[in-house]
Design brief:
Elements lengths: L1 H19 L9 E13 L6 E6 L8 E4 L3 E8 L7 E4 L24 E7 L5 E7 L11 E6 L13 E10 L4 H9 L9 E4 L20 E4 L4 E8 L6 E5 L4 E6 L2 E8 L1 E4 L4 E7 L8 E7 L11 E8 L21 H8 L27 E7 L3 E3 L2 E3 L5 E3 L6 H6 L20 E3 L3 E4 L3 E8 L5 E5 L4 E8 L17 E2 L1 E4 L3 E8 L4 E7 L2 H5 L3 E7 L38 H17 L4
């Protein structure tokens, strides 16, 4: 009968769409996002300029998921240049194919569409995403990435009344393409024009320093309530001191690790770093309060304009914020203050993270080190007449064919597994030199900053343990100062100028993983490498296969099919089987009607 047949079709489409919304993994829920990446004209500092927006938003939307969720992000590139989105701090377990950096992914060309599919396996915490190519992050394209605990895993504090994402970062009024030209010409980027908070300029706290008409960010809160503030430094190269007038910042989490909870009046947040603070609205509501992010480790009187100012507004506030900003740390002649503050950030060994067992049950301090690398940076050097940035005397050259794709399809000559354990002697070199990591090895990396600027370093694929930092040159005797019990596990660490930071990392995640400076200028000029971690066992399941929708470039560009260009999310094999089962079921019902 026609009516019965229609009912069957309705049933079919109902189940089809239900499955489509849950296709990635039958066991774990999925979260779907569509990102349209475009240029937008904005004036965050009063000067019209081209910024990168996602779905018309600057910054972009926050991804909010739960441990073990499958995340599907369909990205349409409407820029006029190649694009990759990197999920900073998301470990991409067994799947460096989804990491969104040039060593692992072919870029998404203009007008093309590509879908990221990955699981946030065994992770919690506060992260962010950004465009990883060609200084694009200096134009925006950033957004928060929250991974919540599963309901069965308690968080080590009372549930906050609200969750607030705050993006801070230095900002230039020149387009990112102009910044690139400056670097290509061997110039420095110079002093930024300001600091943005969630894509907006400073509140007009000073009529001389802040012009009229600047749009600023305001956070509305209820008196007496506690909020979780997830603060990310998404800027170009400037460390920022974050503080809220008359309020304490109770540190609770950093990049996926719960910390020992302690109060700070302010905290230095370096480029690429993320922190969660619990802030209780316990002040009187006679006026609003300043939220400040100001430049650190610079001539602060000359850099006064490089200050972001937002407003904390109680719902019963009786007036506007007024008076001078809360001061930054008074440590001009005390270079140890910030470092001691960093050392005070400790791992909460008794709290559960993504799993029920306490974080401290992984006793990193008792594991034997299998590989040691001393990575030294220096001020820029000339290589073949061009200004380049180096690690251990090597400036990384991105291959036209991604490293792991070259492995899988046996493309020779793409890279060399010859990155040295110690800095090279002699003139610097520009090449595609990769660290040969040992699967299930335990690597010690010493980051030695012989530059005059602060740097922060990020490792994809892992959380590493920050076990020590100090001024001067690292030596074997420095190990005597290591924290082997509750050093914070995180993905991005600072290295002070003229100082070193030591990290330990367990190489249990197969893939090719980017190790880089987060300072965009130095990264653009080659201060990075990759750690290649391969399981030598045959037919193992420690790495996922090449995605069905993988893009191909370089030596493999002939494998790219034109019909793949605008493909959306590719259905997994399991999904196809399930959909086919429902098709058989529905059409079997039709004769009954």
């Amino acid at each position: 009968m026609p009516m019965a047949f229609s009912r069957a079709l309705v049933l079919f489409f109902f189940f089809f769409f239900h499955l489509l919304l849950n296709f990635t993994n039958a066991e774990d829920p999925s979260a779907f996002y569509n990102f349209e990446v475009t240029y937008l004209t904005a004036s965050p500092l009063g000067v019209p300029q081209q910024v990168i927006a996602i779905n018309g938003k600057f910054p972009g939307p926050t991804i909010n998921v739960t441990t073990n969720n499958n995340v599907v992000v369909n990205v349409r590139n409407k820029l006029d240049e190649d694009l990759l989105l990197h999920w900073s701090g998301v470990q991409q377990r067994r799947s460096s194919w989804q990491d969104g950096v040039l060593g692992t992914n072919c870029p998404i060309p203009p007008k093309w569409n590509w879908t990221y599919q990955f699981q946030v396996k065994d992770q919690i915490g506060s992260f962010f995403y950004f465009p990883s190519l060609n200084l694009q992050r200096a134009a925006g394209g950033v957004g928060g990435f929250i991974i919540n605990n599963r309901a069965i895993i308690p968080i080590p504090f009372d549930t906050p009344h609200g969750d607030i994402v705050i993006m801070i970062g230095d900002w230039y009024t020149r387009n990112h393409t102009d910044l690139r030209k400056d670097l290509d010409a061997g110039k420095d980027l110079g002093m930024p024009n300001g600091v943005l908070i969630n894509g907006k300029g400073p509140y007009r706290y000073n009529d001389t320093l802040v012009p009229d008409g600047i749009d600023f960010e305001q956070f509305d809160v209820q008196p007496g309530k506690t909020y979780r503030l997830r603060v990310h430094n998404v800027g170009v190269s400037t460390s920022l001191n974050f503080r809220i007038q008359s309020h304490n910042l109770l540190l609770a989490e950093s990049e996926g690790s719960y910390t020992v909870q302690q109060n700070y009046t302010s905290l230095d947040i370096h480029v690429g770093q993320s922190y969660s603070f619990l802030v209780t609205m316990d002040q009187n509501a006679s006026s609003d309060y300043y939220i400040v992010a100001s430049a650190r480790f610079v001539n602060e009187s000359r850099w006064q304009r490089v200050t972001g100012v937002g407003i904390l507004h109680y719902t019963n506030s009786k007036g506007k914020a007024h008076g001078p900003l809360p001061p930054p740390p008074d440590d001009e002649f005390d270079k140890t203050f910030s470092m001691n503050q960093a050392r005070s950030i400790r791992w909460n060994v008794s709290a559960s993270g993504a799993r029920p067992n306490p974080q401290g049950s992984f006793r990193y301090g008792s594991i034997n080190v299998t590989d040691i690398y001393v990575l030294r940076n220096k001020p820029r050097e000339k290589i073949n007449g061009k200004s380049r940035a180096t690690l251990s005397g090597i400036s990384f050259v991105n291959p036209s064919t991604p490293i792991r794709l070259a492995d899988k399809y046996k493309v020779k000559g793409v890279y060399k597994l010859d990155f040295p354990n110690n800095p090279i002697t002699g003139p610097p070199q520009a090449k595609t030199s990769v660290i040969n990591g040992t699967y299930r090895g335990f690597m010690e990396i010493i980051l030695q900053n012989n530059d005059t600027k602060m740097h922060s370093y990020h490792l994809s694929g892992y959380a590493f343990f920050v076990v020590g930092m100090d001024y001067g040159e690292w030596t074997n005797n420095s190990r005597g100062t290591y924290n082997k019990w509750d050093g914070i596990a995180r993905t991005t660490t600072q290295v002070y100028p003229g100082a070193w930071t030591a990290i330990l990392v367990s190489l249990d995640n197969v893939g090719v993983w980017n190790l880089r400076t987060e300072n965009l200028d130095a990264w653009y000029l080659g201060q990075e490498t990759y750690i290649r971690v391969v399981n030598p066992e045959a037919n193992n399941k420690t790495e996922l296969p090449v995605p069905d929708n993988a893009l191909f470039c370089g030596a493999l560009k002939k494998m790219q099919k034109p019909q793949d260009i605008n493909a959306g999310a590719s259905l997994s094999r399991n999904t196809v089987k399930v959909l086919f089962t429902w098709l058989v079921f529905v059409f079997a019902l039709i004769p009954i009607f």
